[in-house]
User: What shape does this take?
Amino acid sequence: MPELAEVEFVRRRWNPGLGRRITAARVNGRARVFAGCDVEMLRRQAVGARLESSEAAGKQMLFRLRAENGEVLWLGIHLGMTGGLSVRPVGAPVAKADHLVFEQGEDGRALVFADARMFGRVRFERGPAEPAWWAQRAPAIDSAEFSVEAVAEFFRRRARTPVKAALLMQERFPGVGNWMADEILWRAGIHPARRCGELAAEEVRGLHAEARWVCEQAMRIIGCADTDEWPDPPADWLFRHRWADGGRCPRTGCLLRRESVGGRTTCWSPLRQPGEDVS
DNA sequence: TCCTATGTTGTATG
DNA sequence: ACATACAACATAGG
Assistant: This one.
């Protein structure tokens, strides 16, 4: 489920375990989420290590652990569609979807990664330097590198791609997922099926600004929340109206449209976002 | 039973 | 080589 701000929210679920020692690791190595991961090393190295810090970028999370011998260990987690992190008392019942459990026995706490659909991914590496996949991540949308020109150039190279599909590409819009893409386009007044190459320079500027705004506000509202579940954005966001047929545009009151664009269910306001009908 | 789902990737085609 | 489209992955819930 999670996009940018929800990933940040989820990352913080493990904060109670920061600075504390992992005394046991339970790893369901047969689960698809560990494809390409050295599960044996994970089981062996994590025990005795301390959870030192964590970071989120786009939809990715990176946890840094310090082994007893001083080595640095890196745990990468992508939540896929249904992944999540939680903290539970040691000894709490283990569910089918609980693929990774770090017990911090000295604190009576267990750090759990669960993922029912298993579209998520776990990586584990050892060494002083950040893993390459993390070091090479795309520039964040709130960074200077995410410029109007960078977006314009990206759109030029994908002139025939529907702008909705382009917004989902993590190499340029890290953290943007299905609902954020719809939110950005709704605010920018751009029909999701418009081709990237046909957008006017002013529309690209508007889309860039709204991408920044949606990310910033979502991080403030969701990413920083201190609640058990992440909060929803306010009712004047498209977010609150986009999930089922019959929703109305919070700005114009018109009936929202919901169709597949770029292979994903997409919601837009025909009054705010004029364009060709989608078949 | 059928349809949907806040994601990515491999493969086929242009 | 690059861009584009879409099936496939695996499970739960309406």
